[in-house]
Amino acid sequence: MTKPSPTARERIVAGAADMISRRGLNATSIRETAKHARAPLGSTYHYFPEGKQQLATEAVRLTGAWAARGLRKELEAGPVAGLRAFLDLWRGVVVDSDFRAGCPVLAVAIEEPPADETPTALEAAAGVFEEWEGLLAGSLREHGAEPEQAAELATLIVAAVEGTVAMCRAKRSTQPLDRTAAQLQALIIGAIRD
Q1: Could you tell me which residues come within 8 angstroms of residue 87 by beta carbon, excluding any fewer than 6 positions away?
Q2: What pTM, to 2 d.p., does this model score?
């Protein structure tokens, strides 16, 4: 059975996630996203009448769900397997893009929002980080980590991986991922054996 072709809306959201992962949110426009997704500009405004924030929110959620699916599947084999899969996922992103792309969730999270509001894309980024932390913490608890330690270690893993992806882009090397993987794996093993 063949997988159905993505709809124009899905292509636009995926295109926005890709552009945000490469350029950041502020440097990604609706017009460029439509062009990147090979979609008419009018259809972009049709699908996203609230504009760029709505599109960015969808792009963040898409990335979050994509990473969570892979993480959830691999965590069935335990937290070390989940960690490896999470790192491999981001390794694929940076290597396949020749170190030009990172995580669109992080890109949205680090850009300065307007002074008097919290944009929906930023709220979506916070939700994605919480979901990833929750999946990791749940697996750690299931494998013997104390609840507080599991939550703290899950936060450390997400923060370390996100920061490491940025370092890989800057250094044009996967060495930061390798080093981070070794240390995080040691911490997980220590937490689940205690």
Answers
A1: 161, 164, 177, 180, 181
A2: 0.92
Please list the alpha-helical segments (H only) found in the chain. Answer: 8-23, 30-36, 41-47, 52-75, 79-96, 104-110, 120-142, 147-171, 175-193
Token pair of 194 as six digits: 């205690």
Supply angle C-alpha 67, 14, 70, rounded to 5.
Answer: 15
**Measured distance CA(58)–CA(53) in Å, rounded:** 9
Q: What pLDDT, in 10s, does the model give residues 29-57?
A: 999 998 988 888 888 889 999 999 999 99
Contact 103, 125 (CB under 8 A): no
- Do residues 14 and 5 lie in contact, with contact meaning Cβ atoms separated by under 8 Å? no
* Residue whose entry in the numeric block shows the structure tokens 């205690």: 194
Contact present, 145 and 192 (Cβ < 8 Å): yes
